[in-house]
Amino acid sequence: YLTVSIEPLPPVVVGDAVTLKCNFKTDGKMREIVWYRVTDGGTIKQKIFTFDAMFSTNFSQMENYRKREDLVYQSTVRLPEVRISDNGPYECHVGIYDRATREKVVLASGNVFLNVMAPPTSISVLAADTPAPFSRYQAQNFTLVCVVSGGKPAPLVYFKRDGEPIEATPLPEPPAGASSWAPRSLLHRDLDDTKMPKSLAADGELGMGNPFPTADPPRGLAAERDSVTESIPETVVSREFPRWVHMAEPIYYFRHTHAPVSDGTVEARATLTWTLNPQIDNEALFSCEVKHPALSMPMQSEVTLVAPKGPKITMTPTRARVGDTVRILVQGFQNEVFPEPLFTWTRVGSRLLDGSAEHDGKELVLERVPAELNGSMYRCTAQNPLGSTDTHTRLIVFENPNIPRGPEDSNGSLPGHCGFRFVLALTLTVILELT
């Protein structure tokens, strides 16, 4: 008789050593023991190891498996360091010679499933739809996205606020092809709030969330704004705060999706969406935590929601001359800012050098500055969904002696004037001495 059995294996973690033991009983004469790896749902069986009893030899059939297994007691295969690719079913086939005729072989087999787990390799928290503007007149939806990669099976992902678990309303998975981590986009900026005069700010305060209907200010306000900017010092930093109050506790919405990766792992994405209230959410600590059977303790990544404060602006060259290319750059802030700010440059009381009303980005480049820009004031508005900060800086342009002015020659003086002045001075000196 011949019986074959294999004990079931508990899940193993990548890098562990695994022993595949083939238990068999027989009163016949051994012919061979063959281990197979089963793929494609059982349609393909690959030999990975063979013990030939006739010649008392054992060998591996696959180059990739060389030096990775040892046949122990002719029936046990040991994998020193399992990989994700080792995941799947295995079969052990045992063959003995038939008693009646040595030309016939009797076979029996057993199977086992090797479940290989892999802990997540990376976790990160980011904000959807950034950089995004700040509106002090209207509430905005905000979404945090937690991305967990490298895990198998899919991990359990959840959010905490200031160390406390968040009770969120689950949302169903979106249909295939739809965005899985941005339930609603942040509201687009209708108006640069930092440029709004006090009268309109008061109206917005009374309206409780009604933004100014147009991005173009009334003509009558232009002169008023110009007169105000004359008293602005060299560098001014101002901060904007919300004008509305969200009385109720925030309602959080949670969505969890995962997608298989070609290497056998799973990428998990978890989103947390709520109506942002900068008055209470500024400096709030949010963390994304992951539980996984291959981890001994939860894995986490955390961010603190912070509005921009105290932008640091540099201008190069420090002494700009006519014709130079001037670069005005935001190098950073006095604090760590999250999410990423949106930077907008404007020229106070006029348009930028290229004729545009504003420029987006951390750097403003002024090509070949003319003398007319001397004394002009530039404003950088840095904003994220939690707040807005204004910084003003004044451009001082010095004359460039290497650039001729009008009818002057390359040295900056009119032809013949130097010689005339010298002769005139010499003549006056001689006359004085003679008298």
TrEMBL record:
What is the species of this protein?
A: Setophaga kirtlandii (Kirtland's warbler)
Quaternary structure annotation from Swiss-Prot or TrEMBL: Interacts (Ig-like 1 domain) with NRXN2 (via Laminin G-like 1 domain) in a trans-interaction manner.
Q: Which SUPFAM superfamilies match?
A: Immunoglobulin
What's an example GO cellular component term for this entry? postsynaptic membrane
Membrane topology term reads: Lipid-anchor; GPI-anchor
Q: Which GO terms fall under biological process for this protein?
A: heterophilic cell-cell adhesion via plasma membrane cell adhesion molecules; homophilic cell adhesion via plasma membrane adhesion molecules
Name the UniProt key words of this record, in alphabetical order: Cell membrane, Disulfide bond, Glycoprotein, GPI-anchor, Immunoglobulin domain, Lipoprotein, Membrane, Postsynaptic cell membrane, Repeat, Signal, Synapse
Descriptive protein name: Immunoglobulin superfamily member 21
State where the protein is found.
Answer: Postsynaptic cell membrane
Domain Ig-like stretches: 15-108, 311-396
Query: What is the predominant subcellular site recorded for this chain?
Result: membrane
**InterPro entries to which the protein is assigned, alphabetical:** Ig-like_dom, Ig-like_dom_sf, Ig-like_fold, Ig_sub, Ig_V-set, Nectin/Nectin-like
The free-text function statement in the UniProt record for this protein reads: Involved in synaptic inhibition in the brain. Selectively regulates inhibitory presynaptic differentiation through interacting with presynaptic NRXN2.
Pfam families, from UniProt? Answer: V-set
Q: Where is this region: Disordered?
A: 201-222
